[in-house]
Prior knowledge:
The chain has helices spanning 2-52, 70-77, 79-82, 85-109, 116-128, 131-142, 147-154, 171-196, 200-208, 213-224, 226-241, 245-251, 260-270, 274-307. The protein is mainly α and 308 residues long. The chain has a domain at 85-258: MetI-like fold, CATH 1.10.3720. The N and C termini lie far apart (63 Å).
Amino acid sequence: MSIIATVKSKKVVDYKKQRQREKNITIITFTCIPLVLLILFSFIPLGSMFYYGLTSWNGTAPNKEFVGFQNYVTIFTKPEYFEVFKVSIYYFVGSFVQLALALYFATILTSGVRYQNLFKGFLFFPYLINGVAIGFIFLYCLKQGGTLDIILTKIGLGSLIQKWLGNAKIINYSMAGVSIWRYMGNNLIMFIGAIQSISDEIYEAAELDGASRWQQFKYIIMPSIKRIVQLNLLLAINGALAVFEIPYVMLQGANGSKTFVIQTIETAFQFKKVGLGSAMGIVLLMIVVVIAIIQNVFFKEEEAEMYD
Length: 308
């Protein structure tokens, strides 16, 4: 009997070792594949772009003349390269409006209103549309005599009609408005998912204590979805700095709507200054990284104060 028990015990041990080997192989395989893809399509191109940013390469010449940090000096000393960041301010402000609207609608649509799934679909649908298609839709909507002007005329508000795409003073408000309409649905779904993860027992306890809707939002919802708000805020800020599709498709960056990304692409491919364009890409990356670090430190300090 002892021999049989020993054999069975050995088989169990061998089986466990085999299972552990299979588990390790699975873990290593599923870790290596995305790591290789990340290195191949992110880190290597990033390293190449940093190298190109130190040269005066035009994109076609076989030789790349090394110029050091001269491209970066050009970016920060010539206004035409860096001043386009002013356009990002409109999208930056618009991102806060977008987040506020998404959080407002998410709070309403998780409070048990009728037809909430229908409204979720309506609000999320713009995010599913391709950015190029959205650019063409709003190009015809906002042009002089377009859909918006016709609607305003029909409802008796013809006096509000402006040159939405022709007036440099309001063109970026129009572009930011289009971006809000497009991306709000994504923030909405993330907020709804976070709010629905809050236990119903917490709401029931708050109602028993006589908490109003505003108090429930302030003391239950906001602290519970703080991480999602932080994530959406970071994505919104990054998006505001890297706007490209909508202003490029609608106006090719004309009439004061040119963003830093459009300026970068024009510099690299239209004016054949790939080295300078690569340096501009690195500058944008560093700005995004710095903003992410500052935001992360700020939220950590807030959490530390909250738990002290």
